[in-house]
Amino acid sequence: MITQETKNRLELLQGTLDLLILRILIFGSQHGQGIARAIQQTSEEELLVEHGALYPALQRLEARGWISAKWGVSINNRKARFYSLTTAGRKQLVKETTKWKRLTAAIGRILGSRAERS
Known about the structure:
The chain is of the alpha+beta class and about 120 residues long. The protein contains five helices and three strands, in the order ααβααββα. It has helices at about 5, 15-25, 30-40, 50-65, 85-110; strands at about 30, 65-75, 80-85.
C-alpha cells in the first residue's frame, strides 16, 4: 500500500546510491538490509532504498573493487553477505564526496542567486 509518506519521500538521483553505500560502510561491515536501513534512518526516513536498486549497486561496487563481500550470519541468525569498504573504496569515497560537495555548492549558488531578476 502506498501511503502519503511514501509518496513524499525523495528519490535518489542517479549515481548517488553508490556514494551513500560507500559512506555507510565507512562505519564498518554491514549486510544489504542493514545498509538500506542505515540510509533510511540516517536520512531521517527521507530516502528509501529499494532492493531492486541496492543489490545491483552492491554488485557493481564489488566488481569495481570498492567493496568486498563475505558470507556470515546476521543478528537474526540468517545467512547474509556482509560488505566492507576496501582501500580503493575509501579513496573513491573521498573523490565522490568532493565531487558531490562541488556539485551541490554550484547548484546552491544557482538556486540562491538573483535569478529572479528576469
